[in-house]
Amino acid sequence: MGKRGLAQATWRWFDRRASTATIKPHRVTQTGTETAACRRRSRLFLPRPPPSARGPLAVGSTRPRRGESVRWGWQEVTKGDTEIVSVLRGALVEEVGRPRYDFWFGAGTRLEIDGTRLIVSAPTPFFQDWLRANFRQSLELAGAKALGVRPEVVFRVESPAEEGPGSPPADTSGPEDSTPLPAATGRVGEPPLPPAAQASPPGLESFVAGRRNHTARKTAEMILQRPGALSPVLFYGPTSVGKTHLLRALCSSFRRQRPRSACLYLTAEQFTTGFLQALRGTGTPNFRQKCRGVEMLALDDLQFFCGKRATLIELLNTIDHLMREGRQLVFAADRPPAELAELGTELRTRLESGMVCELQAADYEMRVEIVGQMACRMGLEVPDEVRHFIAARLTNHARELSGALCRLQAASVASGRSIDRALAEETLADMIRHSQRLVRLQDIEKAVCHAFGVEAESLRSPSKSKSASQPRMLAMWLARKHTRAALSEIGRYFGRRSHSTGRRRSCRAAGRGGER
After folding, report:
1. What is d(CA 299, CA 315) in angstroms, rounded to the nearest whole number?
2. Residue 85 burial (CB < 10 Å; 0-12/13-18/19+)?
3. How crowded is residue 483: how many other Cβ atoms within 10 Å of its Cβ?
4. For burial by CB atoms within 10 Å, which of 154, 289, 332, 406 has the most?
């Protein structure tokens, strides 16, 4: 066989190897598009592909449009836009970070490739303006990594009619795991509120003040009339006295009266989480702009900051900035500033420089009004007798009243009966039993001393004078009747009396009470 025949046989063998080779999907790199088949042909000394099929970095090359095929040698390779978009999204995550990507480029934002153009379809005009102003450069860099050439970024708003039948509905709220700070109002340049936070709470008129919390109510009204005049303001009190209700109602009334002014309500946990996320990647300038670019900042659960040094420094700088600008600051805590030593002297002195109001537990009249308001919001018809019954028997906190109304509603629906006193007594029996306050020996001693005007030492003294023995007998009888303490324990508490002495004096006091 001559040289010519040997060359022809060799090329026929190469032809059979190339025709049986499997062309794997392309992979996208920073230098362009490369396929496994191209690498295999290069190992077989096959002719290189034409310049038009060597990727976008080749001189004089033209990138094929969607659906067009590229011929390499004698094989055709069709490129899909889905893979390019997936690579593009991965590069975009590296540019902007996972939290920002999940919020702004989630299911509501679509990315499409049209030749050398990158089309960004936003769900709303606000998203379109925000993406154009803040993410154009990141999109261009990500497109350059995915396509090999810096694309032309085109923004548009996608209406529901333009979406395909299989397209998911637009979601402008972002995923649940991202926790951006909520925007104060509809200010330009701030992300929108999530749906759960868009429900505006009732205004200040829904806060039941009564005589005990009259000062706190008037302070809130002064804040609405002249924001910044009383700043900072601290509302403190035990749990379930209405601190969160007052702050949210105040913010709602502020937004209603001043729609152009920004008002931000945050819990201390939300402030801390936003600050930590800003330190880890999103950037502190954006976080500070959200917290400091408002007319009124309301922070709940201030005691949560105890022991968090870095967050306390940021909070202190935020307070100083807002106070210099004459803005309004409102806080809520479970203790007065003097008992919040872990917050630091700097923060405590700033809190004490403003208005400090105590919120007390609701009295009987307030509980009756609270039950009426809750029943109205729930759409329940509760007679006055039942409202007074609930207010008299459930005295711990307002959340207990809400739970009682929920039970009554469920019992009424289940039994088909209207809400009345009998149904309330039957349904709320266990709640009333557990809500009754446990009487202690110290409580009885304090009440008897207050009624007779004597000192506690006289009840425990061995004196048998009438001024000391009569109050002592009454105290031992009340302790026997209203506590679970044994006679021996009662006798030891009131001057180390014996069991028989305690029993005799209890019976004597009971006999005198019956005679009277």
Report:
1. 10
2. middle
3. 16
4. 332
